[in-house]
């Protein structure tokens, strides 16, 4: 493979990681050869690059080499298409049939397009098959399954193009749809949208255009329970149910990504895709209003309320779309933002009742759909009015805590820091930048290139300095004294100027301005001051404004407070001010970003429900808690032997001594084989298919095993005593051969209070937040240890001596929450126990304290993907998030918009993971470390990361261009982006940021959403906050919660109640309808309802209350009223009512 | 008449006939008429006509003194042309004795709750008699045992109907045999294996070899039944089975006693010869799914219909017809309702539910006094969604004039001797999805399936919400003269074994939802039924 370009220091870093990795693999290989694991060696293949990963993931030999060859001359996407064609033509790999070759070709192409990381190529494409057109020619259909979602729109769409490209290669005709099939697609996609929601829903015409012209038949497995109503039982469509994979590929793939496909079609000169042109031009005309398109030639940013849809109780709205008082956009990148994570002031998090914590997801108006939140204290916090009438901005956490209880209204919720790269990635027009310090200082420097620049002083100038600079250099007024003039109108401006002119009292030295409180309130000018964000204090009957001179001048008043103007000429107030004031005043907050809470942050151990310690099946013997101890003492009936339990388990045979059992390794040391038989003919056959009836063979059957002796032997083997608080197994193995893992592993996990996931690993989940720079002090690691780990110099090149120095984070180093660290510590101790007691080798970690785990190797793995990424634990944070370099997140194919994924201890994965434990069903291969990326190459991570800007400041032209809503692409070459650094040593080093933050863990530890108890409490808190924030319309929030959460919930549960299935409490058997016998026909147990009256009614009272209190629309009120009557009619007996019972209730 | 001749006639018609039956016919005073009558009414699935299939009483009651050609005037459903307007009712006096002669309903809720007499302008009386309706009888509070009782009641009612035709044993007894060692049972006589059971279908699946596997359940247990693909006719019948209907199966047990191989399938279908209805004079108009308040409500057409009821028409035939109308029957969805589906507020002209009913009341006030109005609710109406639905509550009925009779859904109503079973028709959605050959275009076919099963809504857990009442109000017993549904917005008129089936269409043009699923409604069509002949005329507005 081509060597990664990096500095010596980085090479040393990679070599250290790989050296330790190799050491660990050697230890594990030795250990595994001694135990009863499925294989005597590590089961996670290492992949240094993309080519390796693709080959390992799909398993077509020779692909890696071909990829490397193709990548030399072609772009990733072109290479993927070429690769597909070569595979289909049989240049690599061997296939039995045409359709198999086509299938493999599509899979490798999609794998390559998705960096060989996600599960889509193995799980999302079920198969490709060849069908017959009505004219007798053949066509290719691709069967997509649900997990194709993880490929993303572009790769989904390209997979269709690959299909077309390869079918031409092997000479198959195009798909010619029948009329009813086209209509079926339309109905089905609309139905899918209703039941599962789509990012983009194509219009009927678009779907028709795509289906009629697409040369490949996009088919799929049924994924939803819903069936189409109109176009049923079509000959060539095997199901009446909704095919989710098909809908995704067609809508979010082809329809949404048509321009990208067209680019490749043009490059490759494939014919038959001319219709894309029509689709693209058509898409624009029919796109939803509310997008930021140009109107009458003048670009404009319009409010978008999409993020407000589907509001959920307890997840508050922070700002209605683009409303004054909402988040004020500020461009820039802090060391813990970018890559779909945005920064807000930690003081704001606290003032907004702790609903936002680091890592909490916010659904935002722009530029993307959602963003993870990170604390950045170098931007402005919220401005509030206290109970005593004071209006102040709260920038520090201390103030926030001290004043929170006195806040009467949150006039402005503060700034939100979003980097340029996020606008570029989302291709969102650059919204006008506010006039901020970063912009001002550049105008200052431009005007006075030789002046000495003391940044600290310039950041917080006195009013005199600010005014002098305006005068001397003829630059706009400093942002500190620039108020939100664009939020008031000319008449308010005039009234305010008149009031101050008439009733204001300016201190002789100009240090403060006094206004009579009552009159200011009566004239409505207090509110205007608040809207302008002019901070002031109320002392007795007087309002006091400090440093008022720039404000007074901005009003066109002089030092004697006499008005120097009579009338306002322009419609735009700011134009008038610029004429009157004698200096330039720029818009302070031209762009507001609406936001509401998405999902809360997460930092918690991964637990299945119920959470097992061991992958050992015990069927019903362990009761509902799956207790292994209970199973060991289980008796089928009073006369039977204790601990003999019936379970479904795989039967294996030892090829050496012929002994049958269920373990992977015979006591004689030989590895066993599954003893296969045909479940139909009952004959024993050692093949995957029965030679007699062609059905699939299996080795599993219901057998009685002596669990008690297994249990006791396992304890004895590792010398542990049987006194665990809780020790749980599973009901049934989900894997193909149903072979359990050694019980000893479970005992030791239970001892250390660890839970296993479906693949035998122990995992910890955290919300993803990016981090590019660290201070040793904030991650709890000493300078000495940092130096040992290779952190020698800070960002300015100075040697590391002080733990407050800022260091550039190495790309595979992770900062995890303390709770995660505690769990990892226990995993290391468990691994040591396992090495010593089970494998009988030397311990490896020898850890006692969390300090001991700094530097251990971890593995990051995201849901829906199948490739782990090697990482190293660097430090800890009190925030409930997993901080890592954006490259690291991108390598897992995650951005930081509020998603979460897991880390596991590398050694745990090496030692305990096995493919033999993975569930034998759709999606079973997902979320499992099928390969491990050892070295992070920025060229091979998700392309999204290439759009991150890494500079210390944005150029002046940038700020100016945003005023005209420029296209972000215009700055692609000016900005210092990752994409520009690829292939140089700078791709790993010398990153910068525009805004610092003093503490990456500032703000609440947990979102209030998680600490509040019931849904009603959450809802109350949400509405309380809504009432406090000026930018939020509380009745609208109440109405939205009712119509998008409570009413559908009640309606749904009411429906479910009347159509519900039942369940046996004893054996958990489920019945579509209650059995006529009344009790469980399987075990005679008591049968109960699955939907209860309580769950139907739970939101009724609170809905009635909220509807009244917030006076929601009468339509919504009536809906609640009717559903109340409906419940009453269903749950109340007419007869007993006649007797007057209801009178007592 | 000679016995041989009678046999020949039946053989020619494709039936065997038992000697006893022949004796019955030849001994009758009018054997030829009787033969014609039997052949008219015989169940086509019958092979051998037994004595029990000949209902001499009903024959004599139906045709005591009619001239011969009247036999041809069996109500004809397919005759739905608008041009054909039936003649003025005969001079026969209205059958006033009908109340006493109606079979008393079996369900406890079916007491004669409401018995009103109305006099129209001519001094004639329009009797409306509600025979079965859930209103004020709902006892459910949502407990598990109520669900069990509800299905047991269904089983009891339907199995009693089947039991007359099949000698069945409890399923429990089959399971007992199964537990015994399998070898011992064999070696008995040929008939030893012939077994019949009556059960509720709890599972239908197709085996790998294409056979149908059913799970039948009765209150004693559950048992699997296999229908062989090779048995063409039987398999065809079985492929129309739906979940939760009650059927009888006769078949033979497999060697190990673990499976019943079906040979014969018995539905609780109508008897082949049933009493001909009494009939009465005048006409009844059937409609449903008016959807007042919806932006797709066809107000103009609807007002045209009201004009017709008021005799405001230039067409003499229509005018004459309107004068004969005694009843207006409305099977649900009076208004479009609110919150019935997501985003409904965008498709409404009237957003207030009570305003919708007020508007509807205004329309019904325009119906002339001599026409009696019966209204039952549907899934868009402001009553509980779970069926059976009670009639509108006081807060809604009070908006309407007193002369309207409100009933629940379903409801069996006696219109001066003609029994009308009103059911909104939610279950048609399920039947369309489950029974091959049943479509939204021909809703009367779905209604045939209801009658065959003697159940309005057999399938549980799909689209129909049920309230677990003590009685299964969906069981069709007694047999109505007319089954009236709506819901699907397509008009369908049919006839099944002397029951007139009417799906009365809608007053709403194609909705957004219907566009999506490609449903074409047939709005503003009104079936008018002559109550003496059950001849139907379809009017288009």
From TrEMBL, chain A:
Reactions catalysed, as given in the entry: DNA(n) + a 2'-deoxyribonucleoside 5'-triphosphate = DNA(n+1) + diphosphate; Exonucleolytic cleavage in the 3'- to 5'-direction to yield nucleoside 5'-phosphates
Q: Where is this region: Disordered?
A: 284-303
Q: Name one GO biological process term.
A: DNA catabolic process
DNA polymerase II large subunit DP2 catalytic domain residues are 722-1018
**Which intervals hold domain DNA polymerase II large subunit DP2 central?**
296-686
UniProt signal peptide: none
The UniProt record lists the EC number as 2.7.7.7, 3.1.11.1
Q: Quote one Gene Ontology molecular function term.
A: DNA binding
Q: Short name of one Pfam family for this protein? A: PolC_DP2_central
Outline the extent of the DNA polymerase II large subunit DP2 N-terminal domain. 12-281
Specify the domain of life of the species encoding this protein: Archaea
Alphabetical UniProt keywords: DNA replication, DNA-binding, DNA-directed DNA polymerase, Exonuclease, Hydrolase, Multifunctional enzyme, Nuclease, Nucleotidyltransferase, Transferase
What function is annotated for this protein? Answer: Possesses two activities: a DNA synthesis (polymerase) and an exonucleolytic activity that degrades single-stranded DNA in the 3'- to 5'-direction. Has a template-primer preference which is characteristic of a replicative DNA polymerase.
Subunit (UniProt): Heterodimer of a large subunit and a small subunit.
- Record's family? Belongs to the archaeal DNA polymerase II family.
- This chain belongs to the protein called DNA polymerase II large subunit
Native organism: Methanococcoides seepicolus
State the encoding gene.
polC
TrEMBL record, chain B:
The GO terms describing molecular function are:
DNA binding; DNA-directed DNA polymerase activity; single-stranded DNA 3'-5' DNA exonuclease activity
* Keywords, ordered alphabetically: DNA replication, DNA-binding, DNA-directed DNA polymerase, Exonuclease, Hydrolase, Multifunctional enzyme, Nuclease, Nucleotidyltransferase, Transferase
Give the EC number(s) listed in the UniProt record: 2.7.7.7, 3.1.11.1
As its record notes, the protein acts as a catalyst of: Exonucleolytic cleavage in the 3'- to 5'-direction to yield nucleoside 5'-phosphates; DNA(n) + a 2'-deoxyribonucleoside 5'-triphosphate = DNA(n+1) + diphosphate
Q: Cellular component GO terms, alphabetically? A: DNA polymerase complex
**Gene3D superfamilies assigned:** 3.60.21.50
One example of a Gene Ontology biological process annotation: DNA strand elongation involved in DNA replication
Entry annotated with the keyword Nuclease: yes
Annotated region Disordered: the residues are 74-118
Known SUPFAM superfamilies for this protein? Metallo-dependent phosphatases
The record places domain DNA polymerase alpha/delta/epsilon subunit B at: 310-487
Question: Which Pfam families has this protein been placed in?
Answer: DNA_pol_E_B, tRNA_anti-codon
Q: Where is the OB domain?
A: 196-256
Q: Compositional bias (Low complexity) spans?
A: 80-111
Has keyword Ribonucleoprotein?
no
Which InterPro entries would you find in this protein's record? DNA_pol_a/d/e_bsu, DNA_pol_delta/II_ssu, Metallo-depent_PP-like, NA-bd_OB_tRNA, Pol2_small_arc
Outline what the protein does: Possesses two activities: a DNA synthesis (polymerase) and an exonucleolytic activity that degrades single-stranded DNA in the 3' to 5' direction. Has a template-primer preference which is characteristic of a replicative DNA polymerase.
Which NCBIfam families has this protein been placed in? PRK04036.1-1, PRK04036.1-3, PRK04036.1-5
- How would you summarize the oligomeric state and partners of this protein? Heterodimer of a large subunit and a small subunit.
Q: Which family does it belong to?
A: Belongs to the DNA polymerase delta/II small subunit family.
Q: What is this protein called?
A: DNA polymerase II small subunit
């Amino acid at each position: 493979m081509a060597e990664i370009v990096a500095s010596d220091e980085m090479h040393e870093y990679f070599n250290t990681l790989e050296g330790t990795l190799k050491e660990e693999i050697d230890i594990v290989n030795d250990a595994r050869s001694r135990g009863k694991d499925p294989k005597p060696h590590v089961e996670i293949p290492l992949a240094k690059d993309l080519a390796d990963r693709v080959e390992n993931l799909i398993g077509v030999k020779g692909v890696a080499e071909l990829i490397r060859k193709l990548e030399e001359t072609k772009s990733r996407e072109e290479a993927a298409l070429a690769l597909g064609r070569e595979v289909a033509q049989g240049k690599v790999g061997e296939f039995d049939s045409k359709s198999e070759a086509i299938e493999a070709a599509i899979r490798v192409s999609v794998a390559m397009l998705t960096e060989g990381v996600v599960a889509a190529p193995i799980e999302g494409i079920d198969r490709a098959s060849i069908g017959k057109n009505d004219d007798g020619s053949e066509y290719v259909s691709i069967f997509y399954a649900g997990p194709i979602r993880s490929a993303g729109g572009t790769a989904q769409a390209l997979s269709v193009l690959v299909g077309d490209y390869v079918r031409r290669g092997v000479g198959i005709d195009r798909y010619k749809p029948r009329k009813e099939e086209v209509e079926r697609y339309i109905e089905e996609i609309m139905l899918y949208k209703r039941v599962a929601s789509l990012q983009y829903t194509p219009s009927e015409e678009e779907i028709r255009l795509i289906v009629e012209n697409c040369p490949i038949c996009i088919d799929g497995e049924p994924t939803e329970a819903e069936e189409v109503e109109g176009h049923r039982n079509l000959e060539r469509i095997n199901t009446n149910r909704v095919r989710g994979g098909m809908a995704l590929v067609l809508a979010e793939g082809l329809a949404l990504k048509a321009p990208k496909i067209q680019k490749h079609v043009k490059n490759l000169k494939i014919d038959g895709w001319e219709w894309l042109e029509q689709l693209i031009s058509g898409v624009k005309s029919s796109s939803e209003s509310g997008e930021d398109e140009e109107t009458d030639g003048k670009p404009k940013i319009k409010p978008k309320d999409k993020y407000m849809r589907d509001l959920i109780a307890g997840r508050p709205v922070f700002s209605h779309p683009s409303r004054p008082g909402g988040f004020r956009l500020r461009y820039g990148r802090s060391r813990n933002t970018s890559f779909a994570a945005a920064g807000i002031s930690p003081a704001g998090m606290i003032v907004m009742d702790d609903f936002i914590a680091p890592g909490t997801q916010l659904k935002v108006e722009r530029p993307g759909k959602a963003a993870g939140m990170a604390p950045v204290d170098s931007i402005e916090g919220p401005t509030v009015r206290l109970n005593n009438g004071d209006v102040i901005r709260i920038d520090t956490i201390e103030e926030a805590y001290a004043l929170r209880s006195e806040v009467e209204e949150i006039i402005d919720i503060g700034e939100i820091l979003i980097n340029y790269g996020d606008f570029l990635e989302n291709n969102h027009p650059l919204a006008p930048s506010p006039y901020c310090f970063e912009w001002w200082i550049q105008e200052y420097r431009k005007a006075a290139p030789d002046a000495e620049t003391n940044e600290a002083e310039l950041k917080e100038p006195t009013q005199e300095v600010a005014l002098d600079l305006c005068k001397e250099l003829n630059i706009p007024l400093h942002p500190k004294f620039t108020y939100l003039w664009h939020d008031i109108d000319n008449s308010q401006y005039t009234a305010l100027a008149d009031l101050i002119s008439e009733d204001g009292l300016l201190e002789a030295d100009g240090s403060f301005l006094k206004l009579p409180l009552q009159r200011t309130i009566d004239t409505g000018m207090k509110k205007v001051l608040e809207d302008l964000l002019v901070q002031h204090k109320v002392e007795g009957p007087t309002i006091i404004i400090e440093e008022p001179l720039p404000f007074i001048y901005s009003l066109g008043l002089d030092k004697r407070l006499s008005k120097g103007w009579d009338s306002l000429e322009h419609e735009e107030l700011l134009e008038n001010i610029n004429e009157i004031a004698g200096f330039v005043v720029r818009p302070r907050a031209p762009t507001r970003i609406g936001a509401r809470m998405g999902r809360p942050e997460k930092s918690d151990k991964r637990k299945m429900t119920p959470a097992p310690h061991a992958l050992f099946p015990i069927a019903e013997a362990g009761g509902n808690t799956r207790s292994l101890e209970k199973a060991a003492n289980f008796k089928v009936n009073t006369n039977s032997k204790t601990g003999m339990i019936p379970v479904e388990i795989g039967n294996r045979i030892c090829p050496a001594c012929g002994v049958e059992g269920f373990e992977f390794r015979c006591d004689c040391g030989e590895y066993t084989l599954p003893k296969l038989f045909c479940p139909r003919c009952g004959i024993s056959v050692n093949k995957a298919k029965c030679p007699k009836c062609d059905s699939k063979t299996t080795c599993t059957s219901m057998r009685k095993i002596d669990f008690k002796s297994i249990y006791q032997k396992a304890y004895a083997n590792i010398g542990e005593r049987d006194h665990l608080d809780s020790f749980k197994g599973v009901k049934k193995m989900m894997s193909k051969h149903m072979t359990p893992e050694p019980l000893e592993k479970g005992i030791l996990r239970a001892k250390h209070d660890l839970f296993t996931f479906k693949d035998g690993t122990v995992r910890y989940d955290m919300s993803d937040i990016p981090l590019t720079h660290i201070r040793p002090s904030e991650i709890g690691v000493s300078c000495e240890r940092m130096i040992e780990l290779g952190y020698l110099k800070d960002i300015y090149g100075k040697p590391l001596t002080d733990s407050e120095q800022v260091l550039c984070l190495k790309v595979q180093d992770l900062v995890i929450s303390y709770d995660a660290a505690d769990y990892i510590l226990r995993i290391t101790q468990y691994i040591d126990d396992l090495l010593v007691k089970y494998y009988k080798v030397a311990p490896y970690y020898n850890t006692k304290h969390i300090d001991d785990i700094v530097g251990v190797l971890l593995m990051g793995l995201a849901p829906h993907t199948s490739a782990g990424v090697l990482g190293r634990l660097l430090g800890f944070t009190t925030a409930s998030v997993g901080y890592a370099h954006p490259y690291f997140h991108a390598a897992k194919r995650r951005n930081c918009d509020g998603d979460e994924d897991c880390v596991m201890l590398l050694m745990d994965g090496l030692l305990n993971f096995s493919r033999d434990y993975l569930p034998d069903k759709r999606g079973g291969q997902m979320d499992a470390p099928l390969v491990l990326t050892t070295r992070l190459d920025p060229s091979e991570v998700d392309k999204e990361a290439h759009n991150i800007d890494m500079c210390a400041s944005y150029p002046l032209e940038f700020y100016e261009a945003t005023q005209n809503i420029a296209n972000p692409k215009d700055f692609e070459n000016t900005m210092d982006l990752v994409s520009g650094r690829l292939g140089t040593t700078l791709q790993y080093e010398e990153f910068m940021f525009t805004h610092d933050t003093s503490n990456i863990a500032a703000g609440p530890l947990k979102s209030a959403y998680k600490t509040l108890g019931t849904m009603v409490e959450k809802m109350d808190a949400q509405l309380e906050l809504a009432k406090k924030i000026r930018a939020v319309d509380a009745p609208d929030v109440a109405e939205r919660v009712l119509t998008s959460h409570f009413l559908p919930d009640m309606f749904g549960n009411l429906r479910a109640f009347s159509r519900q299935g039942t369940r046996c409490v004893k054996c958990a058997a489920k019945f579509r309808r209650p059995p006529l016998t009344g009790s469980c026909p399987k075990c005679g147990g008591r049968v109960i309802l699955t939907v209860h009256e309580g769950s139907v009614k739970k939101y009724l009272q609170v809905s009635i209350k909220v509807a009244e209190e917030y006076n929601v629309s009468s339509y919504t009120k009536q809906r609640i009223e009717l559903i109340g009557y409906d419940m009453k009619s269903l749950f109340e007996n007419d007869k007993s009512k006649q007797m007057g019972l209801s009178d007592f209730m | 008449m000679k016995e041989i001749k009678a046999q020949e006639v039946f053989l020619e018609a494709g039936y065997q006939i038992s000697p006893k039956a022949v004796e019955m016919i030849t001994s009758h005073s009018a054997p030829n008429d009787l033969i014609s009558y039997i052949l008219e009414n015989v169940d086509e699935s019958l092979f051998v006509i037994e004595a029990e299939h000949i209902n001499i009483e009903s024959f004599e009651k139906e045709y005591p003194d009619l001239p011969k050609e009247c036999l041809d005037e069996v109500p004809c459903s397919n005759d739905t042309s608008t041009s054909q307007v039936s003649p003025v009712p005969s001079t026969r006096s209205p059958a006033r004795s009908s109340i006493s002669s109606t079979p008393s309903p079996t369900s406890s809720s079916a007491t004669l709750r409401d018995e009103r007499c109305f006099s129209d302008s001519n001094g004639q009386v329009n009797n409306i008699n509600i025979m079965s309706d859930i209103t004020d009888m709902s006892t459910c509070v949502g407990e598990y045992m109520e669900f069990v009782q509800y299905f047991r009641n269904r089983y009891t009612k339907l199995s009693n109907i089947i039991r007359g035709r099949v000698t069945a044993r409890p399923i429990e007894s089959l399971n007992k045999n199964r537990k015994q060692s399998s070898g011992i049972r064999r070696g008995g006589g040929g008939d030893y294996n012939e077994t019949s059971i009556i059960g509720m279908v709890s599972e239908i699946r197709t085996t790998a070899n294409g056979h149908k596997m059913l799970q039948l359940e009765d209150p004693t247990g559950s048992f699997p039944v296999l229908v062989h693909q090779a048995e063409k006719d039987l398999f065809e019948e079985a492929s129309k089975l739906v979940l939760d209907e009650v059927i009888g199966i006769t078949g033979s047990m497999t060697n190990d006693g673990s499976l019943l191989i079906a040979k014969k399938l018995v539905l609780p279908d109508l008897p082949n010869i049933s009493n001909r209805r009494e009939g009465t004079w005048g006409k009844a108009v059937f409609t449903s799914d008016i959807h007042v308040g919806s932006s797709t409500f066809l107000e103009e057409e609807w007002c045209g219909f009201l004009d017709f009821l008021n005799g405001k028409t230039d067409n003499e035939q229509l005018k004459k017809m309107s004068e004969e109308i005694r009843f207006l029957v409305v099977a649900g969805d009076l208004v479009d309702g609110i919150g019935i589906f997501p985003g409904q507020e965008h498709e409404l002209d009237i957003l207030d539910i009570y305003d919708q009913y007020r508007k509807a009341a205004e329309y019904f006030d325009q119906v002339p006094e001599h026409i009696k109005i019966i209204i039952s609710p549907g899934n868009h109406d402001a009553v509980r969604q779970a069926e059976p639905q009670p009639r509108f509550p006081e807060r809604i009925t009070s908006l309407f004039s007193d002369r309207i009779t409100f009933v629940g859904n379903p409801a069996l109503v006696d219109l001066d001797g003609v029994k009308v079973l009103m059911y909104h028709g939610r279950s048609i959605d399920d039947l369309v999805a489950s029974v091959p050959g049943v479509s939204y275009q021909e809703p009367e076919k779905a209604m045939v399936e209801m009658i065959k099963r003697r159940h309005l809504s057999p399938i549980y857990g799909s689209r129909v919400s049920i309230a677990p009442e003590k009685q299964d109000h969906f069981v069709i017993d007694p047999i109505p003269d007319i089954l009236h549904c709506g819901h699907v917005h397509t008009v369908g008129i049919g006839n099944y074994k002397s029951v007139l089936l009417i799906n009365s269409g809608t007053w709403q043009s194609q909705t957004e939802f219907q566009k999506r699923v490609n449903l074409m409604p047939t709005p503003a069509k009104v079936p008018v039924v002559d109550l003496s002949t059950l001849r139907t005329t379809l009017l288009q507005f």
